[in-house]
Amino acid sequence: MRSSADADLLQSDLDKLYQWCIVNKLLLNVEKCSILSFTRKSQPIFYSYQINDILLRRSKPVTDLGVTFDTRLDFTQHIDNIVSKAYTKLGFIKCNTRHFSGVLALTVLFFTIVRSGLEYCCLVWDPYNKNKIIEQVQTRFLR
């Protein structure tokens, strides 16, 4: 947003979206709707928006379909979340498979339970800058 005119255009688009939903008999759960502004500015300008005369709340971060978005799009919190979950799952596997001797079975468990969570939507959040943190989970599994 560079000016109040941009904010007015966005509000107009939100109004049109709401009218389209009414025409097509779709319900918007406005209570679940929120605003997240992506910016690298230290002092961003924020505007208020509404749908059906209900003021939308401003959120940071927002989790959508399991991916955590923050205002800077650096995905640090998302990566921390998935790595934490991966360590929990890895601990579960190690605790419950102490008597397994087959490497193949352990590998299948790792790929289906742990690695699938680490790679979920990775094209969206692109882990290029956090590869070491993610690879540490795999290294711990190999020990």
TrEMBL record:
Alphabetical list of PANTHER family matching this protein? REVERSE TRANSCRIPTASE DOMAIN-CONTAINING PROTEIN
- For this entry, the protein name equals Reverse transcriptase domain-containing protein
From what organism does this protein derive? Answer: Araneus ventricosus
